[in-house]
């Protein structure tokens, strides 16, 4: 079972804070805590609650780990679905994003899509993140979501997101160098991507001549905006009857059979 991290009051009664489920597809509790910390600072009016996956990698840095994470996102949501008004997928790459949107009756936001959408509005942008494997994966993600026209490059550093989160001071020079490569390519802004990189954009901003976006803060703002606009989400749209499942957790099996 995923591990929930409790916050303030629950929803249901009129006037209570809206509840946001932050799903960390990584199995690192410290990353969940980091994302929750920045979301709560940015939007204390929302009740941010976290759930850390028990399935998959400590920090996603490969295609195989990414594939496992999509399953983990669905299982984690199914185990914690009741009573939440929105979901934030706390991984820059948004594993399971479209699948969860199919079955969740609430807004589902991903770090990568939210950040890239906002950066695109400022013109051409580059992404800086940890882990070499993310470069082709994020290029594919941008093409899938039709964000690639404004994307000038994905610039990675050798350190993984987990390593950066564990020792952020030691990573700043490498991240700065990657950001400047993006500026050299013509980026009008830089997206600092990765759940473990939350909070570092402000520390780089004084060294980079274009805006540096914090992916966690941008996604948290998109969640807040969605909750203001969206009272109740639209119904789930299916192409046909739910397909029988084998070997899937009971909560997810029930949810996919009848998403409500």
Description:
This protein is of the alpha/beta class. It has 2 domains: 147 residues, 3-Layer(aba) Sandwich (Rossmann fold), CATH 3.40.50; 104 residues, Rossmann fold, CATH 3.40.50.12500. It has 10 helices and 9 strands. A 5-stranded mixed β-sheet has the order 1-3-2-4-5, sandwiched between helices. A 4-stranded parallel β-sheet has the order 7-6-8-9, with helices on both faces. The longest helix has 18 residues. The two termini are 22 Å apart.
Number of strands: 9
Distance between the termini: 22 Å
- Secondary structure class reads alpha/beta
Q: In CATH, what is the class of the largest domain?
A: Alpha Beta
Oligomer kind: single chain
Biggest sheet descriptor: 5 strands, mixed
Quick take:
With 260 residues, the chain is α/β, with parallel strands linked by helices. Helix content is 43%, strand content 16%. The strands form two sheets. Strands 1-3-2-4-5 form a five-stranded mixed beta sheet, with helices on both faces.
Please tag this protein with its features.
single chain, 260 residues, alpha/beta, Rossmann fold, 2 domains, 5-stranded mixed β-sheet, 4-stranded parallel β-sheet, 10 helices, 43% helix, 16% strand, globular, disordered N terminus
What secondary-structure arrangement, pairings included, does this model have?
Elements: E1 3-5, E2 19-24, H1 29-42, E3 47-52, H2 63-80, E4 86-89, H3 97-103, E5 108-110, H4 111-120, E6 125-130, H5 134-144, E7 151-157, H6 161-166, H7 168-184, E8 189-192, H8 201-205, E9 212-214, H9 215-229, H10 250-257
Parallel strand pairs: 2-3, 2-4, 4-5, 6-7, 6-8, 8-9
Antiparallel strand pairs: 1-3
Helix pairs in contact: 1-9, 2-10, 4-9
């Amino acid at each position: 079972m995923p591990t929930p991290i409790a916050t303030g009051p629950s929803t249901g009664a009129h006037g209570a804070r809206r509840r946001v489920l932050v799903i960390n597809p990584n199995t690192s509790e410290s990353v969940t805590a980091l994302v929750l910390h920045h979301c709560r600072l940015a939007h204390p009016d929302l009740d941010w609650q976290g759930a850390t996956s028990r399935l998959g990698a400590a920090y996603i840095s490969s295609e195989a780990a990414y594939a496992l994470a999509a399953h983990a996102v669905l299982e984690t949501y199914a185990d914690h679905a009741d009573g939440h008004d929105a979901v934030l997928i706390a991984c820059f790459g948004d594993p399971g994003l479209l699948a969860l949107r199919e079955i969740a009756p609430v807004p589902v936001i991903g770090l990568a899509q939210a950040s890239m959408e906002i950066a695109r509005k400022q013109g051409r942008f580059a992404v800086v993140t940890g882990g070499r494997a993310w470069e082709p994966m994020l290029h594919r993600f941008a093409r899938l979501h039709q964000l690639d026209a404004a994307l000038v490059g994905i610039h990675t550093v050798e350190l993984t997101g987990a390593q950066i989160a564990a020792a952020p001071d030691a990573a700043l020079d490498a991240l700065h160098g990657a950001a400047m490569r993006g500026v050299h390519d013509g980026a009008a802004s830089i997206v600092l991507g990765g759940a473990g990189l939350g909070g570092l954009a402000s520390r780089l901003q004084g060294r980079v001549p274009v805006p540096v976006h914090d992916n966690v803060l941008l996604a948290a703002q998109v969640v807040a905006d969605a909750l203001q606009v969206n009272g109740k989400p639209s119904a789930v749209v299916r192409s046909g009857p739910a397909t029988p499942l084998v070997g899937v957790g009971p909560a997810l099996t029930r949810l996919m059979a009848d998403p409500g």
